[in-house]
Design goal:
Elements (H helix, E strand, L loop, with lengths): L5 E5 L4 E6 L5 E7 L6 E5 L4 E9 L2 E8 L12 H22 L3 E14 L11 H4 L12 E19 L2 E6 L1 H4 L4 E5 L5 E10 L4 E7 L20 E6 L7 E12 L14 E4 L11 E4 L4 E8 L10 E5 H14 L5 E2 L2 E4 L3 H6 L8 E7 L3 H5 L6 E5 L2 E2 L3 H9 L6 E8 L2 E8 L1 E2 L10 E2 L2 E5 L2 H7 L8 E6 L4 H5 L6 E5 L2 E2 L3 H8 L6 E8 L2 E8 L4
Antiparallel strand pairs: 1-4, 2-3, 5-6, 7-8, 7-10, 8-9, 9-12, 10-11, 11-12, 13-14, 13-16, 14-15, 15-18, 16-17, 17-18, 19-26, 20-21, 21-22, 21-27, 22-23, 22-24, 24-25, 28-29, 29-30, 30-31, 30-32, 32-33
Length: 534
């Protein structure tokens, strides 16, 4: 193919604004401040060129430019072409709406809530006039009575499966997980009484079902792993009670992590972030792609006003897909359990542990008798890989383990004492009784004593050790008397001057009794406890 020269206009004192079409190419270009000082330059495609003495911020500099792609009038589609592209997208949007809306249901729930109603100074709970009419009083002021109230709510769901005459719809736990009564209303107005099949608070996902012989549309499930920032998506549901609402936006981010302690949002899943409008009532509705496939379940928004500001979050359908099967077969999600307390690695921790980066999940504690303890994982270990999954944060470890099947056997790559080792771990099944606080070892988190901490704790510069940052409530460490802010200078008589030395000391084989030499308020004390047997 012969090379053709192209003309590029350098606009001195001007700003070139190019508006890209969705399908590629240019819808139009606008130049601000174009005068007679436009300079035509002939450039061969794929070559680079420089412009000397270009003023940038008042200083002359040589800037490098790429001549590919060049802006020429031949790349600007005609008005007819622009309209054709826009109409093509409009038609696809209509197709997505027509295929998705019939699969989305409005979920009306009712829950019985018990609240304590305070008494009145007149001895009744209803009216001060009771005092004058001689009704019985129990003292001058009653303590209050418990009363039941009916609380109603609305949410969304999407039909995802059918088995015989049983139809299943996916929604959020916070929509239907604790409801006493569930009613679904279809797009065509049909109504059915539904029941809860299974619900999971950790992922905030629930499955409901109803019985019918009638035809039911079922939403196709897509692949959330294929999503990329910039992809078109649609949020469908019943925001604020406005049924059958569809909004369009893009994927703003994928694999968005959250703080597991924030607003009760769980860490067993990451989220798709979108700017498609999501409001109250959208919860449990689908997030669908341009092919009309469900790629997420709309779950929560970040907002200071309570309404949509373009920060919506959906559970990836690949994470929720497993829940459908587990709910139908067992009524609950079977999570794997490892039995560790983990956190992300700060720069200080990375430096003290001799790590090249802060990637990985730091194990601050291991539960006695857990799969982690039985497999040989220890406090102070840094997990960097599980099977084929690279572990870059503690959140990645939590989600990876949660998505394993109980009993799965996988190699864990762990950094310990500066060396990379591999440990084979067999996961257990998570139950409500898994990992009681009393069983965690050692039950504290520590930080190396540095100049900042010395000043804060008013310690001499000659004092070395580790500072207790947190103590697990009701743990053996807590019962021994250890407190936040204590400085541990020795473990079983051996001085410790860093977190690496501290974890090496407590991980000694066969260690059952532990004594800490502790500096507190200028006094040195000895605290000890017996390690719980597995």
């Amino acid at each position: 193919m012969k090379s053709r020269s192209r003309t590029m206009m350098l606009l001195s004192g001007a700003v070139l604004v190019a508006i890209l079409s969705v399908g590629g190419g240019f819808l139009g270009a606008r130049a601000a401040g174009v005068g007679n000082n436009a300079l035509p330059i002939q450039i061969e495609p794929g070559t680079a060129f420089s412009v000397p003495a270009l003023q940038v911020g008042g200083q002359p500099e040589d800037l490098q430019y790429s001549a590919t792609p060049a802006l020429t009038t031949s790349t600007i589609p005609s008005a007819a072409d622009q309209l054709s592209v826009a109409q093509s997208f409009q038609q696809q949007f209509r197709t997505v709406a027509a295929g998705t809306l019939p699969t989305v249901v409005e979920i009306n729930v009712a829950t019985t809530v018990t609240q304590r109603v305070q008494g009145t100074p007149f001895g009744g709970n209803n009216s001060p006039f009771e005092f004058f009419f001689g009704r019985p009083r129990n003292g001058d002021q009653q303590e209050g009575q418990e009363r039941e109230f009916r609380q109603e709510g609305i949410g969304s769901g999407v039909i995802v499966a059918r088995q015989g005459e049983t139809v299943y719809a996916l929604t959020n736990h916070h929509v239907a997980g604790e409801a006493d009564e569930i009613e679904v209303v279809l797009y065509d107005g049909r109504e059915f009484d539904a029941e809860l099949v299974g619900s999971d608070e950790l992922m905030d996902i629930a499955l409901i079902s109803w019985e019918t012989r009638e035809e039911m549309p079922i939403a196709p499930l897509g692949d959330s792993e294929s999503l990329l920032p910039g992809d078109w998506v649609f949020a469908v549901g019943n925001p604020l009670g406005f049924e059958a609402t569809i909004t369009a936006g893009i994927v703003s981010a994928v694999s968005r992590e959250t703080d597991g302690n924030a607003n009760g949002i769980g860490r067993v899943t990451n989220y798709i972030q979108t700017d498609a409008a999501i409001n109250r009532g959208n919860s449990g509705g689908p997030l669908v792609n341009l092919n009309g496939e469900v790629v997420g379940i709309n779950t929560w928004i970040a907002s200071q006003s309570g309404g949509s500001i373009g920060l919506g979050f959906a559970i990836p359908i690949n994470n929720a897909r497993r829940a459908i099967t587990d709910f139908i077969q067992e009524g609950s999600i079977a999570y794997s359990w490892l039995g560790v307390s983990v956190g992300s690695i700060s720069d200080d921790y990375a430096s003290e542990l001799g790590l090249d980066s802060n990637a990985g999940a730091f194990e601050s504690g291991v539960f006695e008798g857990s799969p982690a303890a039985d497999s040989g994982l220890m406090p102070g270990d840094v997990v960097v890989r599980i099977g084929e999954t690279e572990i870059d944060t503690s959140g990645t470890l939590v989600r990876t383990v949660a998505n394993l099947r109980p009993g799965d056997r996988l190699p864990f790559e762990v950094l310990r004492d500066g060396e990379l080792i591999e440990i084979e771990v067999v996961t257990g099944r998570r139950t409500p009784e898994s990992g009681t606080v009393a069983d965690i070892w050692p039950g504290i988190s520590v930080a190396t004593l540095n100049d900042e901490l010395r000043e804060r704790l008013d310690l001499r510069g000659s004092v070395d050790g580790v500072v207790v940052g947190a103590v697990a409530e009701n743990s053996s460490a807590s019962e021994s008397g250890l407190e936040q802010g204590d400085t541990i200078t020795a473990v079983n008589g051996e001085p410790v001057e860093s977190i690496a030395e501290f974890y090496s000391a407590i991980n000694q084989l066969g260690l059952e009794e532990v004594q800490f030499r502790v500096l507190r308020d200028g006094r040195e004390i000895i605290l000890g406890f017996v390690r719980q047997a597995a």
